[in-house]
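Hey,
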Amino acid sequence: MGRNREELAALLAGAGEKPFRAKQVWHWIYHHGETDFSRMTTLAKDARGKLDGLFRVARPDVVREQVSKDGSKKWLFRFEDGAETETVFLPEEDRGALCVSTQVGCALRCPFCRTGSQLLARDLTAAEIVGQVMAARDATGEWPRAKKDRLMTNIVVMGMGEPLFNYDETAKALLIIMDGEGTAISKRRITLSTSGVAPMIGRVGAELGVNLAISLHAPNDELRNKLVPINKKYPLAQLIKALRDYPGAHNARRITLEYIMLRGVNDGPGHARQLVRLVKGLPVKFNLLPFNEWPGAPFKCSTGQTMRRFAKFLNDAGYSAPIRAPRGRDIMAACGQLRSDSQRLRFSRQKARIAAGIEDDPHFHGLGKNQ
């Protein structure tokens, strides 16, 4: 798992199998969710036995599953080296979104986000990102892929980590997930959220074509430097230019700007006015996110009245700005609450600071080659 079609074909060719075998195995793994070669009944019996002896279709281990009173589910997944991430499923009546992680921990250190308090352990591989989708579908009975009443219809890359600091593996995973003969989740049903790694945003549009969301959270550089420290490396002028140039963005397919509502910090009338000036002419919509508290959090959520006033100002300026109802708060599954117990395995504190843009090193973590 985690190999694309070409890699799977090469792997099976190395085992002496003919090219058509890769298509069969792909269909069983990603359409049916099968992990046991012996049950892949369109394969010849001798091929099933041989492949079973050579390969394994892995899933992350489910360490813990929690179910919220609102129906949301959160899993703590453990990978082969012991690293762990959290993944959340948010069901609705006729659809649902799976929120996947791309890193173990996070280097960005945004003070309102619990994941950042863990720091970065390591990137996830494409297999581990895809594995979250497969394991979640196992747990919710979503196989085969063509099942008419399936609820896991959308993917949001909004879990632990900054996906554009792990772009190659994230992109590979999403292309596997989008494959029409596999899980077949359309790019229009996938949203990737970034804190604002401006030089990489164009690649997302050109190579993946998925929906884009930006963790904005502040209307000016002075405040955003504090709330989203990567802004020091990629300030708002650079970020806004990248959004203006984003391939495929138009009024029918708008970029989402996520804005967390922090009491007395970024929720005043002046902030709303600055936001409108900042995004003038951009095809955007807002998601206003009530701050979800966690133990030791340094902020409080804006009051209901303040959020409604803020939303009305944006609405009156011509922008959609719904106040999103929090999901999964009682199991710490809401936006900004994810955190695993993994300790840092590889990255030093200095490298975490570099990745967050607090120290400048364009060669670290692949940013140099991707710029």
